[in-house]
Amino acid sequence: MTLFHKRLAIVAFPALMLAMAGFAQAATAEDAGKSIDQTVEKTGTTMDEAKESAGERTEKTGSYMDDSAITTKVKAEILGDPMLKVLQIHVTTTDGVVYLSGEVDSQQSIDRAKEVAEGVKHVKSVTSALVVKGAK
């Protein structure tokens, strides 16, 4: 091997090694980039799913709170009505539908309780299971 070849080998070998290392790093960097992209995509999907789930829970909770508020308002209106305040009328609300149950002293009381409940804001409908005392 001539001196020229030795010098070429001394210069070329490290250059070749650096080039190979660069390709390896480029491949590694590309793989890392792909991995990061995939992780970001999965995280975005997970975040979207979490937002949807949180929105559904909020919607359900909001509905429950609205139903609770409607029930409270209907009970207050019934207690504030001179014709109904002494009667035992049970009120429950599900998805804006008010359910009245219990015993009252006349058909007029049933009609009035339904009218009062229907007049409360956000009530979608009223279902009555009220019965007249002693009626069979």
Automatic annotation (TrEMBL):
Official protein name in the record: Hyperosmotically inducible protein
Q: Where is the composition biased (Basic and acidic residues)?
A: 48-60
| Keyword Signal in annotation | yes
BON domain sequence ranges: 66-134
Stretch list, region Disordered: 40-64
* Residues making up the signal peptide according to the UniProt record: 1-26
Keyword annotations of the record: Signal
rRNA-binding among keywords? no
One of the Pfam families matching this protein, by short name: BON
Q: What InterPro entries does this protein map onto?
A: BON_dom, Lipoprotein_DolP, Transpt-assoc_nodulatn_dom_bac
